[in-house]
Each structure stands twice: as structure tokens, then as C-alpha cells.
Amino acid sequence: MALIEEELGQPWPNIYSELSSSPIAAASLGQVYKGRLRENGDIVAVKVQRPFVLETVTVDLFVIRNLGLVLRKFPQISIDVVGLVDEWAARFFEELDYVNEGENGTLFAEMMRKDLPQVVVPKTYQKYTSRKVLTTGWVDGEKLSQSTESDVGELVNVGVICYLKQLLDTGFFHADPHPGNMIRTPDGKLAILDFGLVTKLSDDQKYGMIEAIAHLIHRDYGAIVKDFVKLEFISEGVNLEPILPVLAKVFDQALEGGGAKNINFQELASDLAQITFDYPFRIPPYFALIIRAIGVLEGIALVGNPDFAIVDEAYPYIAQRLLTDESPRLRSALRYTIYGKSGVFDAERFIDVMQAFETFITAAKSGGGEELSGDMAELGILQGQTENAFPGFLSNGPPVQTRAALAFLLSDKGNFFREFLLDEIVKGIDAVTREQLVRVMAILGFGNATPVFSMVPTFGLFKPAGLLPTITEEDRVILNNVQTILEFLTAGSSLSQTSNQGFNVSQVIQELLPVLPSISSKVLPEVLSRLSSRVLARVIRDTIW
């Protein structure tokens, strides 16, 4: 009571009409009381810092840091204790400033409001907050880890998305997600408390982690080692050759269980930590905070789902980031994810990314995300187009029901990925056209017209036989890719039910045209331009000596 009066400049009864006589909750740095504001009757949580915490923490950090300075004299100890303590010290001192904690909570709430409205953060009453007293809105609920409600699994998914958004998008990371800080509210939302311990990530760190995951999917260990330099695991100028085979062995073992999505994050972090004893490889301080936070989050999730794996749960969010982020680095990472080192389009990898995206959409709808119209939940909703480039050509039937992946590709947000796929679409149209011509010639009795055309004399450098439509092995791969992708994108929709014999191309076109964004001014001209360039290049190649 005395501290509240000292910090806020007036006796507590002038501020709170009610205040519990004993703490409702307590922790190492402070304790929390339940009260009611006199000015408006709002029920609030009042956190009061314990006496002499600042002095105690300062002495502890001073002792540990001096020990770290001694350990620097032993080259076999590659862990940077001083750097780690400095990182923790900065966070600890920030955590002891309740004004900073209140501002962190307000900023966090703003970052989540549009994308994840099902995540709630208590309001900070800045008027009644000081360095050692924090007044926030009261949140009713129960610990997520102890709740027996049926929607706990969905809220865990929301929590995973929330933390991945912090880690890989906003760069403002809540580094203390222990069970007491994650609450299921009575209306089925996820409340996150206590923003004293946060860490901030740079764009290089955020993008570097996503790029490393893309390289890990393709087991491109040479690229991963370079990623680790960017992420500060390895210092600039260090010879990477001795480290590469060691890291390759660690990741090969981690990938044995079924690929990147099934990696055990805690085991991988432990194996990487072991490398630090023998090689110039270290766990950077910021990543130590991330490991701790993810480990706690995974522990909460495992209570309700013994099969939970954080990397598997993270992949859908990463797919969403790759598909929607406009930064050049992530667009390059998306292309690498689909094409790999070989530069050849991989239809199965494309489907893998799109399926992960659909899994993300399902998770983003959890906990009321769909009802609250969260931006992330609406990524898979196809908005109908009002303009029609071909009036009278199409019937006025019901709108096509599409799966989330197709809806995204046809939406404005899918514009980059759609452009990204135009070359494959053009190759597919070219190959399909020539395949149909070959079939028509066979029906007309020209199954092998090459001998006939070879009798036609050449005119200078011009070879008439080169005009014959042919199907190469590359064309067969392209046709197979087109079929695989079409079957995936139209699965479960009216488009896949047009015929038992295969796709009804005309119906596909008729149903998709009304929803293709600005097809008359954007997509079709680009497709036709690229198609004509491709056909002309092939004709010149095949008919000119």
C-alpha cells in the first residue's frame, strides 16, 4: 500500500474503490492484487514490485558477468557467457520497468488486432502506472494448460500462430510464455499476459530463419551454413569447411523421422549446443531466449496433445509468410522452395506448400478468428469479381466453390505467386495444344508424318519438317505437372465433378473466369504474350538451320 502511494503520488483509496487485502498472484519480481478503479468502476489487476528487487538482480548479474569474463580465458569454452548475460540483463532491467511493460502490452495488442482478433491483451491504464506499479484490465479465465474445454487444441494452434507471427513477422517477441501467462477466457479467446520480458528481432534475423528453413527442406547444407553466419551462430570470416560436415550430420539425423516438418526442435537445439564445445559455433543470445520460449510453449501444447511437434505446427505459418510477404528475400525463398537448387518446377513441392497454407487458414479460423473476421482467417476466402470481360459468354449460375489454395491464387494477395506460376501455365498450354494436334493428326491417319514432310525441300535455312507438332520428354513432365496441380486445386469443388473421364476444360474456364481478378487487363494479355514468345522461339529453333 505504501509503495502504491509513493509511486502514484496519492493514497490508494483515492485511485481504487476496492483492493484485495492479499495478493491474487505472486512471482519472483512482484505480486498482483485485484481492484476496482474509483473513476469508472473497471475491475483491474494491480501489479506491485517487490522491495529491493532492482538491487538484488543487479548484484546477481554483476557476479555472473564477472564469472563470464574469467571463462573467456579458456578457449575450449565457446559459449559467450558475457554476451548472454548482457542480453538477459537488458531484458531483466526492462522487465523491472512497469511503464515499459505496459507500453509493450499496448504495442503487442495493436500488432495482433487485425490478423488475430481472437488473441486478447489486458488494457494498460497509463494514468495509474509507474516504474514499480502497473494497472491493467482484469482478465477472467483459466490457465490454458489446465483447461478441460473442448476448444483448447484450437487455442493452442492460435497460440502457435501468434508466437510465430511475433518471431517471423513483427519481430516483437513475448519471451515469457509460461502457463500462468496464457489464459483461456470464458468466451473462448486466448489472453496473453505479462509483457515485461520481450526481445526484438531484426529483419535479417526474421528473414534469415525462414531462408534457413527453406534450405533445410532441400537439405542444402552449404546454404544453411551461410545462413548461420547471417544469424550470428558463426562469426564472419570463420572457415566454414570444417563445420559443414558436422552440421550436415546433425541435420541428417534430425530429418530422419520424416523430413523438416517432423524435426524435434528441442533435440535439434541441444545437438547444436553440443557443437559449440568443439567448433567456432555459438548460440546467439537472442536465440537462447527464443529456445526457452518455444520450449515452454511446446510443453504447454504437449499437455493436451502428446504428438505435438513445434516445427510441424510452424510449417503452415511459414508457408503463409512465403506466399504473402512482399519482401524480395522471402519471394526469393519461395521460388527456391518450389524450384530447389536444380531450378526445375516441383509440382509436389508446390502442393506441399499450398496444403500447409490451407492448414494455416484452418488454424487461423480457430478460437473465433473466422467469426471476428481476422485478416489471416480471410486469406482463403475468394472475393467475387463484379466485372466480366466476356459479357453474355458465361451463365449466371451459383458462384464456384473453391478450396482455400485456389481461392488464394485467384485473389489479389495471390498476385505474386500467380505471376510466379505464369511460365508454368504457358508451358502447360503450349504442351496441351501440341498434344491435341498430335492426337488429331493420328485420327486423320497421319500418325507419323515426318517422312512425308522430310520429302519437302528446304528453303535456305528453313526446314518445313520443323513445323510438325511434337511432344518431348520435357513436355510430358509439364503435362503431368499441369494435371497434378489441376487435380489438387479443383479437388472437392464443382470443377472436379464435371466428368468421370477427366477435366471438362470449357466448364473449368467458364466457372473460373468470373472470379479471376482483372483477367481481361492483367492475366490473359500476359499469358498470351508469353505463349506467343514461347511458340515463336520454338518455331525458329526447330525450322531454322
UniProtKB/TrEMBL annotation:
InterPro entries named in the record: ABC1_dom, Kinase-like_dom_sf, Prot_kinase_dom, UbiB_kinase
GO molecular function, one term: protein kinase activity
Classification via Gene3D superfamilies: Phosphorylase Kinase, domain 1, Transferase(Phosphotransferase) domain 1
Taxonomic source organism: Prunus persica
Descriptive protein name: Protein kinase domain-containing protein
Family classification: Belongs to the protein kinase superfamily. ADCK protein kinase family.
A Pfam match: ABC1
Record domain Protein kinase: where: 18-351
